[in-house]
Write a structure and sequence with these properties.
The longest helix has 32 residues. It is globular, with a radius of gyration of 22 Å. Helices cover 62% and strands 2% of the residues. A two-stranded antiparallel sheet has the order 1-2.
Length: 325
């Protein structure tokens, strides 16, 4: 059999496999979707992005070696939303076409099926760019691993978000991250003042020059550690991650993703500690003037002080409730 016929036969099998797999999964209900299904969809997106990156002649960004454990579907969901937003922005860079508003889930219990739906919509934004430049679909097919857990999906989405950030005409900048940190600060300040009217908010820390995105990333990770401690008051699981290389090649886009996770976790814990509806529509925070990582770092340290204050107030109130019992 000639090489050409072998190639045609191979491509035929690939297309048949993709069709059968997609058809089998198309019948899955939201409740039947498992992390393995979500991971495969994420890998498909990454394969298509690799095709786009090659067409654009850009190098693959260095791998961010992070280990993730105890990821909950809700945490994966919010990272998937960030993926959708970046894919939509990339498509807009090239076509001036914008997709629909990212899907929202009002359910308290987010499950893998919700994450899969976001990734399917993200794939449409990636395909938008592929069609525009007539880039062929990737022939690489993901391998289904039945032992896949939510932490694997979370890590894969982090990789994709990193890939996308390096393809954007204007990658996520320290200024964009600064605004996201400001949104998180505003939310936490409002939470404290509303639930503890006598609280004294901490002072802004001293400004330190020559900070790098990596410094901000490690500071946000410290903030997430405090949030993990707060979560134990209610026995709520919060994602844990660690890294072995202190010289991680961190970009502002990576910091943005981590701050987005922190904000989503704050909102989740808030609902568990206080009664009432806390989906508050804050006035949109204006886009700031140009900022450097040092400006973001200063705000991230202030955010750490706010979280420590929240932990202190919660501890006192829980102790008071215990004494009353």
């Amino acid at each position: 059999m000639g090489k050409r016929k072998k190639l045609q036969l191979f491509l035929g099998w690939v297309l048949l496999f993709e069709t059968l797999t997609s058809s089998a999964w198309a019948d899955l209900s939201r409740e039947q979707v498992e992390p393995k299904h979500v991971f495969v969809q994420a890998q498909r997106i990454q394969n298509e992005i690799a095709q786009i990156r090659n067409e654009m002649g850009k190098a693959k960004p260095p791998f961010l070696d992070i280990f993730v454990t105890k990821a909950e579907p809700r945490e994966v969901f919010f990272q998937a939303i960030t993926l959708y937003q970046k894919a939509d922005r990339l498509c807009f860079d090239h076509t001036r076409d914008t997709g629909p508003i990212p899907p929202k889930v009002n359910r308290e219990n987010i499950i893998p099926g919700d994450v899969l739906e976001v990734l399917k919509q993200a794939m449409t934004r990636v395909n938008c760019l592929s069609r525009h430049w007539e880039i062929p679909k990737s022939l690489r097919q993901p391998i289904v691993n039945p032992f896949t857990v939510s932490g694997d999906v979370f890590r894969k989405i982090l990789e994709i978000n990193r890939d996308l950030n390096f393809l954007l005409d204007i990658p996520y900048s320290p200024t964009t991250v600064y605004r996201r940190v400001q949104e998180t600060i505003k939310h936490l300040e409002t939470l404290l003042l509303r639930n503890y009217p006598d609280v004294d908010l901490p002072e802004l820390p001293e400004f330190v020059q020559e900070k790098q995105p990596r410094d901000v990333y490690f500071q946000i990770q410290k903030n997430l550690t405090i949030l993990q401690q707060i979560s134990r008051f209610r026995g709520i699981a919060v994602l844990e991650f660690y890294y072995e290389d202190e010289q991680l090649p961190v970009s502002p886009g990576d910091v943005y993703d981590l701050v987005s996770l922190l904000l989503s976790e704050i909102k989740h814990l808030e609902k568990n500690f206080y009664s009432g509806n806390y989906e508050e529509a804050f006035r949109k925070i204006p886009f700031p003037d140009r900022k450097f990582p040092s400006h973001v770092f200063q705000k991230a340290v202030y955010l750490e002080r706010l979280l420590s204050q929240w932990e202190f107030e919660l501890q006192n109130s829980l102790n008071w409730e215990f004494e009353l019992e």
